[in-house]
Amino acid sequence: MVLAGQQFARSDATLRQHGYMALVEALGYADAIRFLTQISAGQGDYVEQQHHIVPDVSVDELYEQARQHWLDRQDRLRSAD
């Protein structure tokens, strides 16, 4: 996708305003703020931090752990009803 020389219908400020409004409409104020804080630029080396958070775990292992966590959570929720 090439954007060089592209003419945009909205200014950057208008685009941000519409984007914020769309987030609030879709998620509500609290979750929109939570989402924005999660995607804001952080500090430090993300790749290095990731190795400390999930050391030596393959994507398949991480997927399996997440899947098992989800299944366990669903079982707990069903048994609570």
Characterization of the model:
- This protein is mostly helical and 81 residues long.
- The protein folds into two domains: 7-41, no CATH class; 50-81.
- The protein has three helices and no strands.
- It has helices spanning 12-39, 46-53, 59-80.
- The N and C termini lie far apart (49 Å).
- Estimate the strand proportion: under 5%
Low-confidence stretches: none
Mean pLDDT: 84
From the alpha carbons, calculate the radius of gyration and give it in angstroms: 20 Å
Global structural class: mainly alpha
Number of domains: 2
Count of DSSP strands: 0
* Tally of separate helices: 3
Largest sheet: none
Amount of helix: over 70%
User: Which H/E pattern describes the elements?
Assistant: HHH
Distance between the termini: 49 Å
Coarse morphology: extended
Please specify the SSE layout and strand pairing:
Elements: H1 12-39, H2 46-53, H3 59-80
Short recap of the structure:
This protein is mainly α and about 80 residues long. It has three helices and no strands. It starts with 11 loop residues before the first helix and ends with a helix.
Q: Could you name the key traits of this structure?
A:
81 residues; mainly alpha; 2 domains; 72% helix; 0% strand
